[in-house]
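Morning - glycine inputs below, output right after.
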Amino acid sequence: MTDELTPETPDEDEQPIKQRKNGLYPGVSDELAENMRSGWADTELHDLRPIEQAPNAARRRAALSARFPGERLVIPAGNIKIRSNDTEYNFRAATEYVYLTGDQTDGNVLVLEPRENAADGHEATIYRLPRSNRENGEFWLNGMGELWVGRRHSLAEAQALLGVPCKDVRDLTGTLAEATGPVRVVHGHDAAIEAALNDKVTAERDEELRVYLSEARVIKDEFEIGELQKAVDSTVRGFEDVVKVLDKAEATSERYIEGTFFLRARVEGSDIGYGSICAAGPNATTLHWVRNNGPVRSGDLLLLDAGVETHTLYTADVTRTLPINGRYTDLQRKIYDAVYAAQEAGIEAVKPGAAYRDFHDAAQRVLTEKLVEWGLVEGPVERVLELGLQRRWTLHGTGHMLGLDVHDCAAARTETYVNGTLEPGMVLTVEPGLYFQADDLTVPEEYRGIGVRIEDDLLVTEDGNRNLSDGLPRRSDEVEAWMAELLGKK
Ligand code: GLY
Ligand code: MN
Ligand code: MN
């Protein structure tokens, strides 16, 4: 579809007077302009009920308000980005904005305005585009008009859905530029808003806001846990889809796997929560293999690390390493079972009161014991751990918080996250792995090009943990039985 009606920069000299008077563009007659102004039904939606997460978002705004009394707080949703020429990337709203509103609309901005008496908290407003104006033609002549991009909610509709008063975002930069008093903004999402605040904010104070909004998300509420479970359940179905098309992937490439999982994500959720890692054979040893253009061969392993993101933008993050022909070789099984044992030790360490680092340490110890046992590194185990020598093959940390972001709460301070203590309501991944690069001359040749990771999503409960992704088998014999059953059903 070409954008024939999108106006080129109007050339004042060449425009007939009558069209300039209308505020319209070349090629639009008075008659057509008049015709397009009327004859449209009133589609205003009444009696809308608030979205499910509206009360949660209100609680989060109240906590934010209490943390920064008397200060204006600006939290943008972000804007659409150009992919090429006049096509755009799919929009994904900024996590902080979604967390505080439940809304995902591009260009929106949440502002918490301090009340006159700081002890009275803040007045929240969401600034957004209203319905397109039909009088001045913007709804059909402007590429952002509703005729091109789809119907928007009116300000009144959005207010009913989100439980927050809404105003026209086109007035916001002027309002912010004129405003006085302390202000903080969440950086990185809206250049125009940041420019309007340029001489009023400091990097240090903005960082405190970002850190607060990261740490506030460490404990998930019931709604969030439900959404994460939905994300994981869709992801489980996506993994099943992939197993069923492994023969088609063998006939083409890893792209068939990526596309198959993406179909599930788009049909059941919003998107994938991060670029799917569909790594067959030696590509499994590249931690973030997202090119996904390699061959899929019987006898090799497939490391699939993928997660569906729900309509509310919570993501799963799950990895399984599968034998492409349905049976692990003896060496693949030996390595897989070692990673499985490490994951079991890691999962065992996920419980309230435990140090966050415990599950990583537990998994690393098991992997190190195996590496020493196999003669790949000289023991004793304590020496290897102390010097970190196992890391040539274990490569990465054993997990991270999970939520709206796949690496959630990333701005949280070390003392509250990595050096912190596990509490009920935290959701985190446990994902040990072993990776033998294809050109690693320090391991026997048969190890080279094998990469294994197993990743699950764990909720810390009052008495331990719940594995949200236990809908997928983990033990090697159970993986084989599951694959056989799925392939038998085809
Ligand atoms: N999928 C990225 C990770 O596991 O952290
Ligand atoms: Mn992960
Ligand atoms: Mn992952």
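Note: The mean pLDDT is 94.

O.
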